[in-house]
């Protein structure tokens, strides 16, 4: 559980970097949402049983927010001095969401409570809103690239959120619940639910029988909403003619906990967990020799190596852990390290006591083992990206 908290916090830092790079402003919105807002948008009944509903002691109705279109649009609507010069406005949060799933399963992949990043954009016109939409999609692509995850952007249904345009971001995986159709001749990809039944020809390039079906795990979803919420709640701004105009909206979600679970699913092997490098709880695990072994003197070298690695640069600070369970064999601790998913494992053995000390370095991602000097090891790990 502690490890999941660390990796989730690291992921939020990566998300913050990508969202703020495109102008995102972070805020917090309440998890407890007034039924009045949801009834105003007509989603109180539309959401059905998935919405967690409750009443306070006075009988007023509320829900636990699965998404926050109503709340954020109301917030913007109360900014009565908003000018077109202040647009686009991109507001986002990373917080707990709630959805009364009929059959929660796959641990973090589908639960009733989960962490999500949701962003909401407000633009002056449709052209600007679509540019913002595209910029967020590019930021999502950059995020998944940094995580080392192959993600496919597919055409999707707008569902109960609504709007004119929607895309899902899918990690291809056999355990995925979504069926995808991907063209082998162009960049077209879609969730199968958006295409006519039985259609195998690509609607974009016209390629005959060009669509291949696969499965995926949805980890992100974007929507161009237009005026669906802004008109209902009165989210307006003063345009260039100093006249009130209704804002054009978009909303964009990322499943924070779902990305963690999906990444482990698609990257791991039977031998152990594989985290995206940026999300690993620690980058390096150093294994000193077993106490009482012939090379027990190398234990002091291991402790010095941990200190040197931690001071090698700002990217390694707090990223190195010493497995000091020296009553256990190296083999047992290597197995544990593979199960925990450290990107790099450094074994301090007899080679560390040579005139030119050498260390056994195991890269978990490639399963390659190399023997490096201290300087070469510092150089290798100094180039590792961290957040």
Description:
The protein has 387 residues and is α+β, with helices and mostly antiparallel strands. The protein has 2 domains: 2-267, BirA Bifunctional Protein, domain 2 (2-Layer Sandwich), CATH 3.30.930; 282-382, Anticodon-binding domain (Rossmann fold, 3-Layer(aba) Sandwich). The protein has 10 helices and 19 strands. It has helices at 2-21, 35-40, 43-46, 69-77, 126-146, 230-233, 256-267, 298-310, 330-340, 374-382; strands at residues 24-26, 32-34, 52-55, 61-64, 89-98, 113-123, 152-155, 165-172, 178-183, 189-191, 211-226, 236-238, 244-246, 248-255, 284-287, 320-322, 344-347, 358-363, 368-373. The strands form 4 sheets. Strands 1, 5, 6, 7, 8, 9, 10, 11 and 14 form a 9-stranded mixed beta sheet that branches. It has a 5-stranded mixed beta sheet with strand order 16-15-17-18-19, sandwiched between helices. A 3-stranded antiparallel beta sheet has the order 2-4-3. The longest helix has 21 residues, at 126-146. It is elongated and about 80 Å long. It comes from Liparis tanakae (Tanaka's snailfish). It catalyses: tRNA(Pro) + L-proline + ATP = L-prolyl-tRNA(Pro) + AMP + diphosphate. This is Probable proline--tRNA ligase, mitochondrial.
């Amino acid at each position: 559980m502690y490890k999941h908290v660390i990796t989730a916090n690291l992921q939020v830092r990566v998300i913050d970097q990508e969202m703020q790079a495109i102008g995102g402003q972070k805020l917090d919105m309440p998890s407890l949402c007034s039924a009045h807002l949801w009834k105003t948008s007509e989603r109180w009944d539309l959401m059905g049983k998935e919405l967690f509903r409750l009443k306070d002691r006075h009988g007023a109705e509320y829900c636990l927010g699965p998404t926050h279109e109503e709340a954020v649009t109301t917030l913007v609507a109360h900014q009565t001095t908003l000018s077109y010069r202040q647009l686009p406005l991109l507001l986002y949060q990373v917080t707990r969401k709630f959805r009364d799933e009929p059959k929660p399963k796959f641990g973090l992949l589908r639960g009733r409570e989960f962490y999500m990043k949701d962003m909401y954009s407000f633009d002056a016109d449709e052209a600007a809103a679509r540019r913002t939409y595209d910029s967020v999609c590019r930021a999502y692509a950059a995020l998944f690239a940094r995580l080392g995850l192959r993600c496919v952007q597919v055409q999707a249904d707008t569902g109960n959120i609504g709007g004119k345009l929607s895309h899902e971001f899918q990690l291809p995986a056999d355990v995925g619940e979504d069926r995808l159709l991907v063209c082998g001749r162009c960049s077209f990809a879609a969730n199968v639910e958006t295409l006519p039944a039985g259609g195998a020809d690509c609607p974009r390039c016209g390629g005959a029988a060009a669509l291949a079906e696969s499965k995926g795990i949805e980890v992100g979803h974007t929507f161009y909403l237009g005026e669906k919420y802004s008109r209902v709640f009165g989210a307006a701004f003063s345009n260039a003619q100093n006249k009130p105009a209704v804002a054009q909206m978009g909303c964009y979600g990322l499943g924070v906990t779902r990305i963690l679970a999906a990444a482990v699913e698609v990257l791991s092997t039977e031998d152990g967990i594989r985290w995206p490098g940026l999300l690993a709880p620690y980058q390096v695990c150093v294994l000193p020799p077993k106490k009482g072994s012939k090379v027990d003197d190398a234990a002091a070298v291991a402790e010095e190596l941990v200190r040197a690695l931690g001071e090698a640069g700002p990217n390694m600070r707090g990223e190195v852990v010493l497995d000091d369970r020296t009553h256990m064999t190296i083999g047992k601790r290597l197995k544990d390290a593979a199960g925990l998913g450290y990107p790099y494992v450094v074994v301090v053995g007899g080679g560390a006591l040579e005139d030119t000390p050498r260390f056994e370095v195991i890269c978990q991602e490639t399963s390659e083992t190399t023997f490096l000097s201290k300087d070469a090891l510092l150089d290798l790990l100094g180039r590792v990206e961290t957040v």
